[in-house]
């Protein structure tokens, strides 16, 4: 007999699964979350928390704990063949674009513990040692077979099942989604170390040379870092037999790192794949279950978290507010194109920094260290670089759920951030749900429409900073629960607003 234990069954309790559960629970949707592992991860796999994730985390009061428990990296340095070539301040690049113009280092093991604790505080416990054995869709629900460590099996009924179960996703395999792509030939090592060096100064360092790349990610103001580097020559044939001593010569010689302790060491290969579908019926894929790529730029975990938040509010709209199931098609329409672009971009960057050959070596060690500081002084170039890395450039302009434009802002864009009198225009976004912003004067018909549809309306007196950010004076911006612009209207018109709701089956 099936047990109905939640409207949504989440398989996998990594960051994306935990974030999905947290957002659904906050939006009033019952969830059940299971994981085959006996406990949270104990190694700090993903490190970087990007600015866009911190912005979204304000909705559940997660930003402050991440910042308090993490470490903000304010600059990155470029080395070439053991010589320091440039230092670029992230704060100078991102200032005025986001309240978080830096890279936050918050190791994944601590990140998962924070999320799981918050979920438990909300009354939802991760069910460990519980594996998905299979599922089928029938009569408007999913019947999932779950296996427990003691050999017991059960059938769980849910309205939807979400695969947040990583690169070897059982949910993806069951729905038959292809996972095209490949595996890079390079072998990488990762080591969390303590020691002394000019490169252990609390900043990010990248060392380029003729045959290798080495990145140093600060994990403290001084003396602690993660090293990520390539393994070359015959050693790469059997990486499972390697130790840190086998691969550390370059870090010790080029960056003058004196290692006093190695806290963790591992080797791995990097894959690049995107699932050919993110949804089949009542089953969805999120995070590494539907896209994996190189670690260039620290995008992986943040992309999975973005997937989860995008899907959460849509599931809530269907399950709680009666929106049509077709609304859920917009999840794949918005997130899969981004995943494909991201894999393509990181693939190009990865191939460039690891390419062999005389020309590639000259470009990597001679041209790049000279060009990067010059580009950092060009406002357009440095803004694009920061927006791309921070994921604040991500938009859904071409997806069907978004419409209109006002100023430089289009439906599907992230709302531009503007500092205001010690605060910012993102403060109301900490309240999950639909809302509207007007920068300038609010027309009565717009105010009446918001009141009739119980849409929170926030009005800001006009200032030049809004125009500089791309906002239009007196325009109407309807914001989705995930804080992206749903509809931008230069001339507020209730008929236009109602038409948007009808076209998308929404009832606010």
Observed structural traits:
508 residues, alpha+beta, FAD/NAD(P)-binding domain, D-Amino Acid Oxidase, Chain A, domain 2, Glutaredoxin, 8-stranded mixed beta sheet, 6-stranded mixed beta sheet, 15 helices, globular
Give your account of this protein's structure.
This protein is α+β, with helices and mostly antiparallel strands. The chain folds into 3 domains: 2-69 and 106-179 and 275-342, 3-Layer(bba) Sandwich (FAD/NAD(P)-binding domain), CATH 3.50.50; 71-105 and 182-271 and 360-394, D-Amino Acid Oxidase, subunit A, domain 2 (D-Amino Acid Oxidase, Chain A, domain 2, 2-Layer Sandwich), CATH 3.30.9.10; 403-504, Glutaredoxin. 32% of the residues lie in helices and 29% in strands. The chain has 15 helices and 28 strands. Strands 7-6-14-15-16-13-17-20 form an 8-stranded mixed sheet. Strand 6 and strand 7 form a beta hairpin. The longest helix is centred in the C-terminal third of the chain and has 26 residues, at 329-354. It is globular, with a radius of gyration of 24 Å. The chain starts with a strand and ends with a helix. 43% of the residues are buried. The model has no long low-confidence stretch (mean pLDDT 90).
Write the layout of secondary structure elements.
Blueprint: E1 2-4, E2 8-11, H1 15-26, E3 31-34, E4 48-49, H2 51-57, H3 63-69, E5 71-73, E6 75-80, E7 83-89, H4 90-94, E8 103-105, H5 108-121, E9 130-138, E10 141-148, E11 153-158, E12 160-163, H6 170-175, E13 181-196, E14 204-208, E15 213-218, E16 224-231, H7 244-247, H8 249-254, E17 258-274, E18 279-280, E19 283-285, E20 291-292, H9 300-319, H10 329-354, H11 358-376, H12 379-390, E21 403-406, E22 409-410, E23 419-420, E24 423-424, E25 435-439, H13 444-452, E26 456-460, H14 464-469, E27 476-479, E28 485-489, H15 494-504
Parallel strand pairs: 1-11, 2-3, 2-12, 6-14, 12-19, 21-28, 25-26
Antiparallel strand pairs: 4-8, 5-8, 6-7, 9-10, 10-11, 13-16, 13-17, 14-15, 15-16, 17-20, 18-19, 21-22, 23-24, 25-27, 27-28
Keywords: FAD, Flavoprotein, Monooxygenase, Oxidoreductase
Pfam family, one: FAD_binding_3
Cofactor: FAD
């Amino acid at each position: 007999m099936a047990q109905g234990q939640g409207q949504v069954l989440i398989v996998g309790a990594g960051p994306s699964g935990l974030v999905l559960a947290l957002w659904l629970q906050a939006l009033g949707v019952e969830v059940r979350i299971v994981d085959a592992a006996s406990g949270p991860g104990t190694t700090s796999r993903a490190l970087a928390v990007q600015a866009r994730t911190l912005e979204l985390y304000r909705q559940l009061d997660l930003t402050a704990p991440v910042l308090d428990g993490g470490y903000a990296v304010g600059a990155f340095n470029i080395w070439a063949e053991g010589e320091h070539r440039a230092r670029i301040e992230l704060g100078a690049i991102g200032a005025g674009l986001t309240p978080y113009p830096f890279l936050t280092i918050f190791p994944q093991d601590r990140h998962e513990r924070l999320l799981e604790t918050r979920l438990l505080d909300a009354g939802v416990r991760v069910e460990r040692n519980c594996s998905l054995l299979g599922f089928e869709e029938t009569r408007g629900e999913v019947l999932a077979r779950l296996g427990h460590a003691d050999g017991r099996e059960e059938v769980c009924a849910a309205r939807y099942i979400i695969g947040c179960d990583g690169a070897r996703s059982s949910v993806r395999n069951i729905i038959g989604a292809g996972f095209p792509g490949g595996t890079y030939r390079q072998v990488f090592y990762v080591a969390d170390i303590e020691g002394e060096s000019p490169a252990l100064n609390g900043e990010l360092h990248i060392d380029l040379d003729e045959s290798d790349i080495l990145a140093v990610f600060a994990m403290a103001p001084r003396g602690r870092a993660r090293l990520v580097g390539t393994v070359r020559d015959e050693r790469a044939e059997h990486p499972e037999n390697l130790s840190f001593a086998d691969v550390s010569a370059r870090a010790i010689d080029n960056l003058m790192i004196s290692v006093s302790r190695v806290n963790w060491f591992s080797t791995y290969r990097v894959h690049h794949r995107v699932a050919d579908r993110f949804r089949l019926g009542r089953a969805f894929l999120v995070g590494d279950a539907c896209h994996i790529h190189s670690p260039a730029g620290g995008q992986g975990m943040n992309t999975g978290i973005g997937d989860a938040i995008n899907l959460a509010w849509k599931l809530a709209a269907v399950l709680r507010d009666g929106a049509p199931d077709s609304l859920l098609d917009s999840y794949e329409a918005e997130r899969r194109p981004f995943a494909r672009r991201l894999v393509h971009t990181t693939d190009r960057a990865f191939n460039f920094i690891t390419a062999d050959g005389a020309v590639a070596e000259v470009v990597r060690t001679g041209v790049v260290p000279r060009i990067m500081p010059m580009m950092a002084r060009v406002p357009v170039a440095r803004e694009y670089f920061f927006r791309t890395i921070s994921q604040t450039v991500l938009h859904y302009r071409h997806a069907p759920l978004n419409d209109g434009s006002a100023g430089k802002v289009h439906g599907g864009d992230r709302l531009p951030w503007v500092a205001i009198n010690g605060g910012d225009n993102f403060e109301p976004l900490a309240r999950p749900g639909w809302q509207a912003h007007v920068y300038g004067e609010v027309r009565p018909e717009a105010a009446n429409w918001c009141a009739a549809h119980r849409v929170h309306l926030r009005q800001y007196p006009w200032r030049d900073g809004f125009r500089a950010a791309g906002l239009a004076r007196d325009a109407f911006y309807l914001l989705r629960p995930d804080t992206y612009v749903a509809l931008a209207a230069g001339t507020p018109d209730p008929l236009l607003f109602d038409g948007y709701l009808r076209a998308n089956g929404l009832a606010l």
